[in-house]
Amino acid sequence: MLQRAFIQEEGHGRMEPEMRQLLEGLHELGIPTECFTPKRLERRQLPLAPDTLVAGHVPSVLGALKQLGLEPPPTNDYPASLQSLLHRRLWRSTVRQLTADLLDTASAPVFAKPLGRRKRFTGHVFQDADDLLYLERAGASTPLLCSTVVRFRSESRAFVVRGALVGLRHYAGDPTVSVDPALVEDAVRRLESSGEATAGYALDFGVLDTGETALVEWNDGFSLGAYGLPSVDYTALTVARWCELTGLTSRADAG
Known about the structure:
There is one protein chain. The protein is of the alpha+beta class. The protein has three domains: about 5-65; about 90-150, Dna Ligase, domain 1; about 150-255, 2-Layer Sandwich (D-amino Acid Aminotransferase, Chain A, domain 1). The chain is built from seven helices and eleven strands. Helix 1 (about 15-30) crosses helix 6.
C-alpha cells in the first residue's frame, strides 16, 4: 500500500502537466504528497522507501530507485511478441558505423536512436552528412538501434494498467486518421500473454502511408507523457508501475 508520494517540480511553482495530474489523482486517493526538486533528490534529502512514490523525469525516478538499492528496469522498446507489428526492419549499429554509412552517398536514409536509457540524442532520420550534427554529443562506440524509414500519418498512445487498456490518445500527425483499435487491443493481449508486460506501460502506434497500423514503440510506465489521459487513469498507471518496481506489489498481487 502506497503511503506517500514525492512529485517533481522545477522550482518557482513550475511543474509539468503530468505531475499536476498526479497531485490531483493522489489527492483523490488520500495519499499525502510533497513536491521536490532534482537537487534535493541528488543530495539525498528525501526519506525514500518502497511505499513512497517518486514521480518525475526519467533521471529522477531512476535516481530514486538507485538510492533504494534497486536496479533500473531493462528497456524493451520493441517487444519480441510484437515484432510482426513493426512493419520495418530493425538492427543494431554504432555511431561509428552510422557515420560511415552517411558519408557513403549511396546509402539509404535510416532512423537511429541511442540504445538503452542514455539518450545522447533524440531519435532522428539520418539522410546525409549534414545530419552528423545530431551525433556531436555521442561517442563513436555509442550503441544505436536503427530501422528502415517509414512515414507515420498519425500516432496514438495506448495506456495499459495491469493488463487493462485504459485509454487511447492521439498525440501526433493527422487527428482524423485513427489507428486500428482492434489491433491495439490484440497487441495488448499478446504482450500480456507473452510475459513481457509490466504492471503499467504504454504502447505507441501509428498509421502508415499504406493505411496499416504499426507499432512505434513500447514505453515503460513511469515518466510518461499523458496526452490528456484522465488523472485517475494516469495516476493508477504510475502507481502500479512504481509498486511493481519497488516490490511493494507484484503483478499477481495486483490482480
